[in-house]
Design a protein that fits this description.
CATH architecture of the largest domain: 2-Layer Sandwich
Radius of gyration: 27 Å
CATH superfamily of the largest domain: Chloramphenicol acetyltransferase-like domain
Low-confidence stretches: 80-126, 180-185
CATH topology of the largest domain: Chloramphenicol Acetyltransferase
Strand content: 15-25%
Largest sheet: 7 strands, mixed
Structural class: alpha+beta
Number of domains: 3
Number of helices: 11
Shape: globular
CATH class of the largest domain: Alpha Beta
Helix content: 25-40%
């Protein structure tokens, strides 16, 4: 009896997705609740788990196809035991059987599904792999249990697998490769010096959504950016003084983002329009601040949300941001993590940006851009001194936020960063 595999519910307002990759091929044995496919939605990758144990039947859709919620994508056939008991006529030769028993033999390359005794790509020592990591593991035919993970709780990240692939597969010597490869099966010659080539790669659903939303923001909102600079001396001194005690007590490093999130929440109280948005002919104000934090992920920029950031402590903010960073890297962020948000902070400084004009994330009305810290000559008490300075950029929707309000918001942030005591006494 066949079991239908359907597209699961993907989240509020999401009705379709793109089938990014099949994790199980027709004829593969499947366990109950084992991932069989990866779907790409507008925001994150979502796994489709098998509703029962069995053998994967024919795929109803191909990779890259758009599928609706509840649509049939494959059928699962009964008979997992039948596949395990292969008839003698189909058994591999003796030398091949030895290769399966000894997968680490010299010169042998195996995928996890070829070796019944090896951990599979979906589960490594009880730790589930994200779709992005699993895809790289399968592409490079690696055993995930042999790779040391640097992610949260030892989870594998995409970078871990790529680094392992470089170490596992050194390029063969040209002479040896030429002898081992039949003339008819030789690969295309390497590009010659000065040769020009092109590669076409299909846009992922996430990248298309990013492009659409950013262009929509430019077409809809009246975007304007205002700038200010801030002396980071006080914050850097506070971090240097308390970072060891902070990490010892809370188990997390004291970073810069905690100061900027708290300062933005404080400034939003004085300038509530920055934390509001336009809905038709109405302005929606919030008595809370949900800060969206722009995070770089393998497939593009994602914006998880720190809920009620105005009510959180420094430690809670830093723990939340660190968790978002790890999960963005290993592809485990969920729809709920990125739902909502009333104000966005983007830190281009981690990549070395000196100055930028960030784009508002609709339907929000403002986004703060942080940049790199560098020593610059400034005047203090009539003397020219070197100070660690950072440029701040606030892009806002001029339909809702006036220039005076935007400048006031940045000034409030500047005051709080240059005198962090204001964050403690709510000034």
């Amino acid at each position: 009896m066949a079991t239908d595999i359907l597209v699961p519910t993907l989240g509020e307002s999401i009705t379709e997705a793109t089938l990014g990759q099949w994790l199980k091929q027709p004829g593969d044995a499947v366990k109950a609740d084992e991932p069989v496919a990866s779907l790409e939605t507008d925001k994150v990758a979502v796994e489709v788990n098998s509703p029962a144990a069995g053998v994967m039947g024919a795929h109803a859709v191909a990779e890259g196809d758009t599928v609706a919620v509840g649509a049939l994508i494959a059928r699962l056939d009964d008979g997992g035991a039948a596949k395990a008991e292969a008839p003698p006529a189909q058994a591999p030769p003796a030398d091949a059987a030895e290769t399966v028993v000894n997968p680490a033999g010299p010169g042998e390359v195996m995928t996890p599904k070829d070796d019944p005794n090896a951990p599979n790509a979906e589960d490594s020592g009880g730790l589930r792999l994200s779709p992005a990591v699993r895809r790289v593991v399968l592409e490079h035919h690696l055993d995930p249990s042999s790779i040391k993970g640097t992610g949260r709780d030892g989870r594998l990240t995409k970078d871990d697998v790529l680094n392992a692939a470089k170490q596992e597969k050194p390029a063969p010597a040209p002479a040896a490769a030429a002898q081992a490869e039949p003339a008819a099966e030789k690969q295309a010659p390497p590009p010659q010096a000065g040769e020009r080539r092109e590669e076409r790669v299909r846009l992922t659903r996430l990248r298309k959504t990013i492009a659409t939303r950013l262009k929509e923001a430019q077409n809809t909102a009246a975007l304007l950016t205002t700038f200010n600079d801030v002396d980071m001396s006080a914050v850097m001194e506070a971090r240097a003084r308390y970072k060891e005690l902070f990490e010892k007590k809370h188990g997390i490093r004291l970073g810069f983002m905690g100061f900027f999130v708290k300062a933005a929440c404080l400034a939003a109280r004085d300038v509530p329009s920055v934390n509001a948005f336009i809905d038709g002919e109405e302005i929606v104000y919030h008595d809370y601040v949900d800060v969206s934090v722009a995070v770089s992920a393998p497939n593009g920029l994602v914006v998880p949300v720190i809920r009620n950031a105005d009510r959180l402590s420094f430690a809670e903010i830093e723990k939340t941001i660190a968790d978002f960073g790890r999960r963005a890297k290993d592809g485990s962020l969920t729809m709920e993590d990125m739902k909502g948000g009333t104000f966005t902070i983007s830190n281009g400084g981690v990549f070395g940006s000196l100055l930028s004009t960030p784009i508002v994330n609709p339907p929000q009305s403002a986004v703060l851009g942080m940049h790199r810290i560098e020593e610059r000559a400034v005047v203090r008490d009539g003397e020219i001194v070197a100070r660690p300075m950072m440029y701040l950029a606030l892009t806002y929707d001029h339909r809702l936020v006036d220039g005076r309000e935007a400048v006031t918001f940045l000034v409030r942030m500047k005051e709080a960063i240059e005198d962090p005591t204001r964050l403690l006494i709510d000034l």
